[in-house]
Write a structure and sequence with these properties.
By secondary structure, the chain is an alpha+beta fold. It has a single domain, classed as Immunoglobulin-like. The protein is 21% helix and 34% strand. The strands form 2 sheets. Strands 2, 3, 4, 6 and 7 form a 5-stranded antiparallel sheet that branches. A two-stranded antiparallel ribbon has the order 1-5. The longest helix is centred in the last third of the chain and has 26 residues.
Length: 123
């Protein structure tokens, strides 16, 4: 998507992220973004319309515009939105195999760090 008339986004191609309440109960969205495959970073939507936190009822939505050249979809595990109760709502981007491989690598790294930490504290 390209926005015309806004100097902030002039000449930029954008990816529009939309969080929509498809249920019947209202929900307060506190933040949303993308969780990266290990070892890539996760991303958070800093500028949203309307601003967060926001209660959305049935059919309402929140959007965020991200420059497309800054997104690498191959490094995203899943898109996520968090509500005021701490519930994480997910939409998978990566394949199940890539997700499994990422989680396995991350756990292996945590175990290595834990073993190193325990080895240095026991001396």
């Amino acid at each position: 998507m390209e926005i015309v008339g806004d100097p902030k986004y002039r000449g930029a191609t954008l990816t529009v992220l939309t969080v929509t309440n498809v249920g019947r109960r209202p929900v307060t969205i506190t933040t949303f973004g993308a969780i990266g495959l290990y070892p890539h970073n996760s991303l958070v939507a800093a500028e949203t319309q309307p601003p967060l936190p926001r209660e959305i009822t049935e059919g309402q939505y929140i959007t965020s515009n991200w420059p497309q050249d800054e997104l690498d979809f191959s490094t995203i595990d899943y898109w996520a939105a968090w509500d005021s109760h701490g519930t994480e709502h997910r939409l998978r981007e990566a394949s199940s195999f890539k997700h499994w491989k990422s989680v396995r690598q991350q756990k292996r790294e945590w175990r290595k760090k834990k073993a190193l930490k325990q080895g240095t504290t026991s001396k």
